[in-house]
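Why do we care about 3D structure at all? Because function follows from shape, and shape follows, mostly, from sequence. That is the central idea of this module. The next example makes it concrete: a single protein chain, its amino acid sequence, and then its structure expressed as tokens.
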Amino acid sequence: MALYSWYKSKRPGDNRTERCLAEDKAVVYSVEEGSGLENVPLIAQPVRNTSRPDMEKVTVPDRNGDQITLNLKAGRLWPMTMEHVADVCGFTARPDDVFLCSYPRSGTHWVSDLLVVLISNRLQLQTALKADAMLEYVGCDHLDTKPSPRVINTHLNYHLLPKDVFQKQCKIVFVYRNPKDVALSYYHFIKERKHYGYNGKFPAFLELFMEGKVPYGDWFEYMQEWNSVIEEGRPCQIHIMYYEQLKQHFLREMSRLCSFLDLTRSTEFLEEMEKLSSFDSFKRSVDAQFDNSALDEWKGAPQFIRTGVVGDWKNWFTVALNEEFDELYQRRMKGSCFNFSYETDFTESV
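And the structure:
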């Protein structure tokens, strides 16, 4: 008999491979050798003890055998650098906190800097890394030292946000981006960081992304949950920002954000913000943040900001990959309230 921590199987019709996300815990199965199930592609290599409270280091193989090294905790995949995931439940919010929520590689760093500029009323990009105010990365004790008002960012799913965020009625800014560019950006991000140990090709990585076998898990489930939150009108203050619209209609989107935050900023101020946050200026700022980071693991790290353009996925998706992705999207996101654009120039739907 072999013991496996089983997050998700590609094998259709296997009722034993229940999704762990529903219960936030790992599911363990005893698999008989010779049953055929031991050869089902797993999200993680066999582990001895899935009940340990700490992180379990796992490797996630793609179809070619190239592996991503990740952490597994409570049935979820996390980046190797996340050490404070278990601390977030005890987070103490403040009423003037602003929470920035997004799936990875969706424009979080850019919008985080914009929020700081707006709230501080100073035309100066951050000198500290986004990670310095990332809930699950730095932990509660570190965030407690931050002066108010705080801009706190996270990639956690909605239902994993600390309860105190809702009890204190904190404002939440939710940012999303078209998933094809997200997948491509995630591929480069993971491949360029040594701690992931991944050297695979993009088509194989895209398959992992589509199956949710990446840090923070399934993009589709993440977006489905936010879709439910938005459509059901949950009792919280949420402002929705679409990355592509922010790129195309910066002044309009910043005006909307100001209204949500109860801020008054002049048109001239927002125009200067637009110049300040242009791609070249923003990339230089982020590069400087890495060079000056107090977080040792980020010093000398490869580029965090790649191109920031809309539609770069076209240079990487084959016709077959695009068709496969579109079919999955239509199936998983049917009836969604989200409207995505995959082009550089697009007409906004009403």
